[in-house]
Amino acid sequence: MEPKKNPKADLNKDIGLYFAIGLVIALLAIYIGIEHKTYDPDEAFIGMMNVDEELDEEIPITEQLQTQPPPPPPAAPEVIEVVEDEEEVEETVVDDTESDQDEVVEDVEDVEVEEEFEDVDVPFAVIEDVPIFPGCEGVAKSQRRACFQEKIQKHIRKNFRYPEIAQEMGVQGRVYVNFVIQKDGSIGNIRMRSPDKNLGKEARRIIDKLPKMTPGKQRGRAVRVPFSIPITFKLQ
Q1: What are the TM regions of this chain, as residue ranges (predicted)?
Q2: Dist. CA 123–CA 142, nearest whole Å
Q3: Which residues have CB under 8 Å from 122's CB, separation 6+?
Q4: What is the pTM assigned to this prediction?
């Protein structure tokens, strides 16, 4: 039996092509609809300005008004009258002090210039002539420094007494004593650094018992000599 339809009239033959064309047309219409923009006629020219008109605008020149009158001219200087001095001034004549070749110059005796000496303290370590502790007078000058220190240590051992209250409390330590041997050989300006007031009191008592000495000398003059020594308090 022969088919009733014409094979050329089959609509399903190109259905895929027609679908693709329709899809492209639809996507193109959607894209144009999204990208298309509309503008308000009243807002289309906002922000524009005519530059030529602004450049051609003429700025009027203003004149500065003078609110205050000009200052008056300065007054003419006073005429100074010169008056001649009628009083005669006696001229002072200075004699010539230059000597002639024939003039004999007498010898002038040498003038002794007293050297200025500053009254300063000279440390025991650098003084020229150290203070002399009683008993060191017959020692050579080069040995007097060692003799002085030996006598000081002997004096401390001889007069040393441990404070009873410090012993009971178990206090011990080292007291650093500083004093000055004055120009007359006496002891003064005693200062100390102590861990306990009782130990410091005993150290001061020992230093107060130091005898008067022969003062130290610098350039032949008596000077004050600072000296420092530690005193150790240690329980047995």
Answers
A1: 15-34
A2: 17
A3: 216, 218, 223, 224, 225
A4: 0.49
Q: Are 215 and 131 in contact (CB under 8 A)?
A: yes
Q: What is the pLDDT of residues 157-204, one digit of tens each?
A: 999 999 999 999 999 999 999 999 999 999 999 999 999 999 999 999
Domains of the chain, CATH where assigned: 141-233 (3.30.1150)
Q: Is the pLDDT of residue 82 over 70?
A: no
| 69 token code pair | 């009158």
Q: When comparing pLDDT for 163 and 11, which is higher? A: 163
In tens, the pLDDT along 113-132 reads: 555 556 788 999 999 999 99
DSSP string for residues in 27-86 = HHHHHHHHH-----TTTTTTT---HHHHHTPPPPPPPPP--SPPPPPPPPPPPPPP----
Burial class (CB in 10 A: 0-12, 13-18, 19+), 181: buried
Phi and psi torsions of 50, nearest 5°: -90, 100
H helices present in 160-196, as ranges: 164-169
Residues in the chain, total = 236
Q: Which two tokens stand for residue 181?
A: 């041997």
Closest to 199 in 3D by CA, of 219, 228, 177, 226: 177
State the Cα–Cα distance between residues 99 and 122, nearest whole angstrom: 49
